[in-house]
Each structure stands twice: as C-alpha cells, then as structure tokens.
Amino acid sequence: MTEQQRNARFALAVLFGVNLMNFFDRQIAGALGEPIRVEFGLNDTQLGLLATVFTLVYACVGVPLGRLTDSWLRTRLIAIGVTFWSLLTAASGLAWNYTSFLLTRIGVGIGEASCAPAGQSLIGDLYPPEKRARAMAVFMLGLPFGLFGAYMLSGVIGQAWGWRAAFFVACVPGLILAALALFIKEPPRGALEARTSLAMPGSPYRAVLRIKTMWWIVLSGLLFNFFTYAVNVFQTPFLQRFHELGLKEANTISAVSLGLTGVIGLLLGGWLGDRLRTRANGRVLVGAVALLLAAPCVLLAVQQPKGGVVMFTVLMSVSGALWFAYYSTVYAAIQDIVPPNLRGTAVSLYFFAMYVLGASFGSTIMGALSDYFAHRAMIDAGATEMADVFRASGLHSAMYVIPALLLLCSGSLFGAAKTIAADMRAMTTQTR
C-alpha cells in the first residue's frame, strides 16, 4: 500500500468520525425535543424553529467557508470547526431558557458548516472518479450512525439523567476527532483528474451556477432536506403522542428506522453508483428510483393505526434505507460535474440552497401544520383547551406531507439524469 493510499484511508476514517459527530450533535435536540418542549413550555412551531434557525445559520456561514475550502488548508478548517461546535454542544446543556438554548444551537451550526465542503473536497482529491461514490458512501455513513447514536444514547441518557446530560457527553469525542484531523496530509487539488482546474473569468459562484445539472441537484437537495429535517425533528414526538410510547422506546425506533437502516442504503447506493457509472446518468438514476420507491413506504407507515408500531417501524426502516441512497449517489455526482478548483464552492452553494429553502422550512412548516391541525381537532371536538389527544391528531395529519415531498424529489433527479452527460463532458474537456 502506497503512502497516498494509507493517507486516503486514514483521512476517510477520520472524516467518517467527524461526519458522525456532525449529525450526532445536530440531532440531539430532535431526539430530546419533547422533554425540552415541556421544560421550556414550547409549542410545535417553536420546537421546529430551533432547527430552522440552526439550518439558516449553517447555510449562510457555509458559503464563505466553502470558498475558503478551495483556497486554504482543509484539514485545519475541519479541526477548528469540530472544536468549536463540540464546545457549543456542551454549552447547550447549560441553557436556562428557550433563547439561551437557541443561541447555543446557532453556535453549533456555525462550527458544523465547515464539515461538508471541506470533507467532500478532500474525498474528491483522495479518491479517483471510479471509486468516489463508495468513498462518499463511507463518509456519509456518519449520517445514519450519527442519527442512530443520537437517538439511542439520548433516549437512554435523557431518561436516566435528564436531557442536559446528553449534550455534555457529546463534546468529548468531537475534541478527539479535531486533533486527529490535523494528522491528515493535505492532498494536492485535482491530482486525480484529467484536468486539474477550469479557468473561467468572473465569479466562481456564477461558474458553478452555469452547470445545468447543479440546478436539478439543488432542487432535489432542498426537497430532500425539507422532509428529512421534518422527520428527524418530529418522528420521535409523533411516536410518543400518537402511539403513546415512552422517550426511550420512541427514540429506539427512530434510531433504527431513521439511522441504522440508512447504512444499507448508503453502501448499496454507493456500490450501484460506481457500477452504473458506465452510464453518465447512472448515479442520479439510482437515487431517483430509490426515492420513488420510498414514498409509498412512508405513506403506509403514517396510515398505521394507533398501536401499529411494528409495521410503522418496518415501513419507515425500508423507506429510510431507500432514501439514504441519495447521499452516496448525488454527492458523488456533484464531483463528476464540477472541476476540482470549484468543488468546495459548489458544495457550499448546494448546501446553502437546500438548507435555506428546504431544511430550514421543513421542521417549522411541519410544526406549524401540526399546530394548525391540532387546533382544528380541538375546535371540531368543541373543546376550549389544547389537550394531548389534539396534539397527537395534529402531528399525525401533518406527517402526510412527507411522501409527497419524496415523489417531488425523485422527479428532480430524473430531471438531472437528462442533463448530466453534457455537463460531465464539459467538465472534462473544458469547453464550457
């Protein structure tokens, strides 16, 4: 094994750990949403707003950090970012009211904005195109394992020692990973490409936005993150309210269906994406078909009657495995159509759009829909006070928006499949 290969494997292992803690620390608030809501006296709209503010800050800070990724040491940027968000995660456990908790989550969002552009840019320079989807799949394994860990550990720790303790526990592994990131050897940009850069006058942002497929991928990203953030914030409260499960039991189901089963989708999606790379649109077609199949699974899961927890878990697990294929296929496709010297910029623009226009609205709109339907249920029952049964009914009705969004996201990837071949040729030949 060459030194370059050893460095690539070590870097991928560290980046996997960094991405795991990225989503672990991000999802703790969702896993413990119900006890946090009760302690601070929040409604569902306020609960969803926590994720909205987080994602807006994450997206806005990510754009300049993405540009910095293309010109500065990516390993150092990751180390600084992980250190910052880990410390702010611990500070979340010290919050004394809704505002102070919100401010600490903003700090976490600022730190985490460094992870995706720098991490994906590094992978693009550490692995050749024919192995990139599988490498991206390993990096993105941090997502399901991070969600799994957040739900499982938060449920156990929150039930045993209170919700604040979970935020303190999350800080330590992040600081260790920040130190390890400094031992990654920075690879030269574009060394594994036929062409190392695309000389283009004017703004680098405009250069990225001239790539037609990026528009389809951005559209898919905002739809995808709209529903994933809505599900991640509200599935556990839904299980607690509608199916009347305890905090630990509800988080265990979310850990499996929203986290662990995603490992299958990521690995299988990455494998299929690389196998089908003989077709220019092979990768995005894998993602499109996977999302198309996931939509009816979610619909049937939401339709399960009160107490139908087993079938809900099975159906959401299947859908989760399917929709996770999006990450390993679409993220690798971005590397195929964007030249190496613009990849950090491209990822940051993609993340900005999908978080500002998608993820930031997902949890808040889901919360607002839940409150609206809960109020309707209260009025229809002739009641004058909001009771738990109305909150359960409201959230149940709001969950039906998810399968519709899955279908729209699938359609956007089918659109990308029509333009990607031309964009791949343009990136290779520099004719754009």
Q: What overall form do the CA principal axes indicate?
A: globular
Which parts are unreliable, with pLDDT below 50 for 5 consecutive residues or more? none
Kindly report the name of the CATH homologous superfamily. MFS general substrate transporter like domains
The fraction of residues in strands falls at under 5%
What is the class in the CATH system? Mainly Alpha
- Rounded to an integer in angstroms, the radius of gyration calculated over CA atoms is 21 Å
State the helicity in percent bands. over 70%
Examine the secondary-structure arrangement and name the CATH architecture.
Up-down Bundle
Count of helices?
Answer: 20
CATH fold-level assignment: Growth Hormone, Chain: A
What structural class do you assign from the helix and strand content? mainly alpha
Organism: Steroidobacter gossypii
Domain Major facilitator superfamily (MFS) profile: 11-412
Keywords: Membrane, Transmembrane, Transmembrane helix, Transport
Protein name: MFS transporter
